UniProtKB/TrEMBL annotation:
Residues 77-257 form the Guanylate kinase-like domain. It holds the Pfam family Guanylate_kin. InterPro entries: GK/Ca_channel_bsu (IPR008145), Guanylate_kin-like_dom (IPR008144), Guanylate_kinase_CS (IPR020590), MAGUK (IPR050716), P-loop_NTPase (IPR027417). Keywords: Coiled coil. This is MAGUK p55 subfamily member 5-A. Residues 211-262 form a coiled coil. PROSITE patterns: GUANYLATE_KINASE_1, GUANYLATE_KINASE_2. The keyword Nucleus does not apply. CDD domains: GMPK (cd00071). It comes from the Eukaryota.
């Protein structure tokens, strides 16, 4: 379903898959700080332990999948899903896209916690009861969900669809386990794997950006990327080797632009 190009070039959907990542030993690491604090992500939403139903067992991995050409439709912008290991630059890429608020938008998350006086339902969050949230989980309405400080948080298929229906491109940072429900919907997601370069180039990037790092953390990023590609690589439409953030962003934006002009190979079931 995709073709891998060696080196630091992006890769796109094509034929046989080959690995572009290096293997390293797994090591523990600390979460990266951001402007909202350690307990919040780059959008200001709380970090929570993500839960998604992982139905992609080894027995289900498809060596071949029937595909068909999908022609772009002006009234349906394919959601862009960024996948990758922690601290590889997915959030930076997403935030750059989100600066163009006329074209890109985020899915408004759901939560079971009480609404604050300053918050607007449907704008800050979709506020629902805990029992309703649990019912929606069982009905597989969330592509991912989790719990933080005794409250549920999650991203629903309908919230993504709402962005699509508005005529904008929904940009998501998800764990690859979340792809099962999303790919089984009618939303036709375009999955981009943001991968690290070699250990040496990853080290050079950190030094160039004046970012502190530990060697074990860099190895851990590469190892997690390797694991993701091994398990979920057949679901990736594109791989971007993030050696340089500006270059990676330009590659991503170029590909998104092409999605609105050129036909793409997708699972045949999506166009039937």
């Amino acid at each position: 379903m995709k073709q891998t190009i060696a080196g630091d070039k992006s890769t796109v959907r094509g034929s046989k898959k080959s690995s572009t990542l290096l293997c390293a030993r797994k090591n523990p690491k600390k979460k990266k700080r951001n402007k909202f604090g350690a307990n919040y992500n780059d959008d200001g939403y709380p970090h929570y332990a993500t839960t998604a139903i992982d139905d992609y067992d080894s027995e289900e991995v498809l060596t071949y999948e029937e595909v068909a050409l999908y022609y772009p439709r002006a009234n349906h912008k394919r959601p862009i899903v960024l996948i990758g290991p922690p601290n590889i630059g997915r959030h930076e890429l997403r935030q750059r896209l989100m600066h163009d608020s006329e074209r890109f938008a985020a899915a408004i998350p759901h939560t079971s916690r009480p609404r604050k006086d300053s918050e607007v339902d449907g704008q800050d969050y979709h506020f629902i009861s805990r029992s309703q949230f649990e019912s929606d989980i069982l009905c597989r309405k969330f592509v991912e969900h989790g719990e933080y400080e005794k409250a549920y948080y999650g991203t629903s298929v309908e919230a993504i669809r709402s962005v699509v229906n508005s005529g904008k491109i929904c940009v998501l940072n998800l764990h690859p386990q979340s792809l099962k429900i999303l790919r089984n919907s009618d939303l036709k997601p375009y999955v981009v794997f943001v991968a690290p370069p070699s250990l040496e180039k990853l080290r050079q990037k950190r030094i160039k950006n004046n970012e502190s790092f530990k060697e074990e953390e860099l190895k851990d990023i590469i190892e997690k990327a390797r694991e993701m590609e091994d398990k979920y690589g057949h679901l990736f439409d594109m791989i971007i080797i993030n050696t340089d953030t500006d270059r990676a962003y330009n590659q991503l934006l170029t590909e998104i632009n092409s999605l609105e002009r050129e036909p793409q190979w997708v699972p045949a079931s999506w166009v039937q």
